[in-house]
Specification:
It is built from five helices and five strands. By secondary structure, it is α/β, with parallel strands linked by helices. Helix content is 29%, strand content 12%. It has a single domain, classed as 3-Layer(aba) Sandwich (Lysozyme-like), CATH 3.40.80.10.
């Protein structure tokens, strides 16, 4: 397996496709499996495509060391710089940001390692926004990454008192606590 050095965002260019229909289409192209490693459906569910330990088939000439993640939407063939989120549901947007942050975290990458398909192929509109210029997208991914890197500690459970009553300290205990 090649060292993972980048993540590339895609749009499926189909509105009602499923992971299985994408797999069938990609296999019909002669590929061994779905080209993307992850697919985010309209409900925000992240589906596994090709295993991450296998090279994807999503950016001609740039697949080695590159995790591909796509969201299901028709998008637009003429809007490579549409506003971020225009062609996705809120659930997709949130799930995409979290999944990208997860990949960055697991492979020790930064937001500078995230690309859009259109960064490699200027003739493509995919993913229908400018990944590297979208401050909203990059800021949101960075916030999700920070949550993974510095998780909030779990709240401590309160211990039961000796007499079995929660949240009460006996008068004797109060007297024993130095002030």
């Amino acid at each position: 397996m090649a060292k993972i050095t980048k993540v590339t965002i895609h749009i499926t260019a189909c509105d009602n496709c499923t992971v299985e229909s994408i797999r069938k289409f990609h296999k019909a192209q002669g590929w061994s499996d779905i080209g993307y490693h992850w697919i985010v459906d309209k409900a925000g569910v992240v589906h596994k495509g090709r295993p991450e330990n296998l090279t994807g088939a999503h950016v001609a000439g740039h697949n080695t060391g590159n995790i591909g993640i796509s969201y299901i939407s028709r998008g637009s063939d003429t809007e490579p710089n549409a506003p971020y989120g225009k062609f996705m549901t809120e659930a997709q947007r949130i799930a995409l940001e979290k999944k990208v942050a997860d990949i960055l975290y697991r492979y020790n990458l930064t937001i500078y390692d995230i690309y859009g398909h259109n960064d490699f192929d200027k003739g493509k509109a995919c993913p229908c926004f400018s990944v590297r210029k979208s401050n909203t997208f990059l800021d949101n991914v960075a916030k999700e990454y920070a949550k993974l890197k510095n998780p909030k500690p779990e709240p401590l459970e309160q211990a039961e008192s000796i007499d079995g009553v929660d949240n009460e300290i006996s008068e004797e205990a109060h007297k024993a606590i130095p002030v």
